[in-house]
Specification:
The protein is mostly helical and about 200 residues long. It is about 45% helix and about 5% strand. It contains 8 helices and 3 strands; from the N terminus they run αβαβαααααβα.
Length: about 200
């Protein structure tokens, strides 16, 4: 189990990607024991995004970078694509969200006039495109198979550092969930503060 990804449910062959269908799929996984993943990865289908936010409100949502790059290449002239792709990929592979935001600001400044449609696409749902750096490095892989429509990433941490990192991320996600829903976020009485480096959420 340690250090390996596992398929927790078969794909829904031939089914629709509307919120009701995908929510039913996720709820079935929950009934069979799936907890809240640290990170849930999907493409930009509105129904899938709504189902993720409804069924996994305490999880971080990551837009699949492979899908986003396919969106961008269709909106970028062929001669400009290699340079634009390199700039965008650097954003998605940034070691922290703060650095990703800084690099993204540079992309917008340099290309919004020349490539307005591509730049708008790049910034659409941007925070979800850079969700992965907050997760421990074994999980934070900034590429997803282009055939995926949705993937829930969860794993058992093998080392003490990984366990500490995952606990810190989970506590931050819980805190954000409570704050977003007007609850009173309270720190666990026995939980010591945990300092992370580039994987901290910013």
């Amino acid at each position: 189990m340690l250090g390996r990804r596992h398929v927790v449910a078969p794909p829904m062959a031939g089914s629709k990607e509307d919120a009701e269908t995908v929510s039913t799929f996720f709820q079935d996984m929950r009934r069979r024991g799936l907890g809240d993943p640290l990170l849930v990865v999907s493409d930009g289908a509105a129904g899938i995004i709504k189902a993720i936010e409804t069924c996994f409100p305490r999880s971080a949502r990551q837009r699949c970078p492979a899908h986003r790059l396919r969106n961008l290449v269709a909106k970028t002239p062929e001669d400009l694509w290699p340079e634009f792709k390199a700039r965008v990929s650097a954003v998605y592979q940034a070691p922290s969200r703060a650095i990703g935001r800084e690099l993204a600001a540079g992309v917008v400044a340099d290309y919004q006039t020349e490539l307005p449609t591509a730049t708008a696409c790049f910034m659409d749902d941007f925070e979800a495109c850079i969700a992965h750096p907050e997760c421990p490095s074994p999980i934070a892989v900034p590429s997803v198979p282009p055939t995926c429509w949705s993937a829930c990433l969860s794993r058992n941490a093998g080392s003490d550092l990984e366990r500490r990192q995952m606990r810190a991320v989970r506590e931050e996600l819980d805190h954000e969930y409570q704050a977003h829903n007007g609850l009173n976020p309270t720190a666990s009485a026995d939980a010591a503060p945990i300092q992370l480096s580039s994987t901290s959420r910013t």
